[in-house]
Design goal:
This protein is of the alpha/beta class. It has 2 domains: 53 residues, no CATH class; 201 residues, Rossmann fold, CATH 3.40.50.410. Helix content is 24%, strand content 19%. The strands form 4 sheets. The protein has a 6-stranded mixed beta sheet with strand order 2-1-6-3-4-5, with helices on both faces. Strand 3, helix 4 and strand 4 form a beta-alpha-beta unit. The protein is globular and about 50 Å long. 31% of the residues are buried.
Length: 309
């Protein structure tokens, strides 16, 4: 029997870590004994040497890559100006026909100011109206607000939410006279996924595209085939001079970079001044364990192995 002066000892000691100022503390607390302030996340698994293991399993990343190579992600592209039109049929993310169709987008631009987003949403909903298992989503790239059929566009967004189809809106380089910086018809509030982002640079656009596909790319344990329709603004604003390029060329470059490896995700990278910047991306399986704004982290490449932490 332990006396009152002895330290309480758990029969099942567990190594715990707290990242506060770069310090690591250990103790003999178990999950049930640990105060909530000390235990904000599920416990880290430890190996036989009491070394914490990574939360992200490399085997799951490899499984997702295998699903991706098996064609479990299909992408279609639809353009719109004063009317909607199909650019690329629904096909594998790495299909050569898809890349060729996207590269031909500047030739499909119409010199009109109208953006008929409602027609584009209708085309996307028809393409995604399939009984097959798998997640479905719409990624809308636009340079500003819808100029026609705004009420119909909102009704179609509600229809998409009823069908569990997430809508991600990315407003690229909005003009100063655009009070709303794009249509707020995303499904974030109704479904819990979707989003609205305003971007001004190529890096921001690439990060926004990766974030939009975060829940749409193949993942461990998924069923069926995930399908995504990308709606691209093809009005005259997209071919106007924007920096040293045009908005449409910026989108093509960002999409081609994304298609090289859709499993890469955008993560906040802590820099030397302990601030977070989202313009840099790290593969999902290479995110440093436990990194946060309070950690001291030196910028630069970091080699990764399955046991690195």
């Amino acid at each position: 029997m332990p006396t009152s002066t002895q330290r309480p000892h758990s029969p099942d000691p567990l190594l715990t870590r707290r990242f506060a100022g770069g310090k690591v503390t250990t103790g003999l607390y178990t999950q049930s004994q640990m105060p909530p302030a000390m235990f904000p996340h599920p416990p880290l698994r430890v190996d036989r040497h009491s070394h914490p293991q990574r939360r992200d399993n490399p085997a799951r990343y490899q499984n997702a890559m295998r699903l991706l190579q098996d064609g479990r992600l299909q992408i279609g592209v639809t353009g719109f100006h004063d009317a909607a039109f199909n650019v690329g049929i629904m096909d594998r993310y790495d299909a050569p026909q898809l890349v060729e169709a996207v590269a031909d987008l500047p030739c499909r631009v119409k010199m009109v100011a109208q953006r008929n987003i409602a027609d584009a949403l209708l085309v996307a909903l028809n393409a995604l109206d399939t009984p097959e298992a798998g997640r479905r989503g719409i990624v809308l790239i636009t340079s500003g607000e819808s100029s026609v059929k705004e009420e119909w566009a909102r009704e179609l967004a509600e229809t998409a939410a009823q069908r569990r189809i997430g809508i991600h809106v990315i407003c690229l380089g909005p003009k100063s006279d655009d009070p709303t910086c794009g249509p707020r018809i995303n499904t974030k509030n109704t479904l819990g996924y979707g989003g609205f982002r305003v971007v001004k640079t190529g890096d921001q656009l690439l990060a926004a595209v990766r974030d939009s596909f975060d829940g749409l790319t193949p993942a461990f344990g998924m069923k069926g085939t995930n399908k995504v329709v990308i709606l691209v603004d093809c009005s005259e604003t997209m071919v106007e001079s924007y920096g040293n390029t045009t908005r449409i060329e910026m989108f093509i470059a960002s999409l081609n970079e994304f298609l090289k490896d859709p499993l890469i995700r955008s993560y906040p990278v802590p820099w030397a001044n302990n601030t977070l910047q989202n313009a840099h991306t790290i593969p999902r399986s290479r995110v440093p364990l436990g990194r946060g704004a309070s950690d001291t982290f030196t910028p630069g490449p970091r080699p990764w192995t399955p046991r690195s932490a």
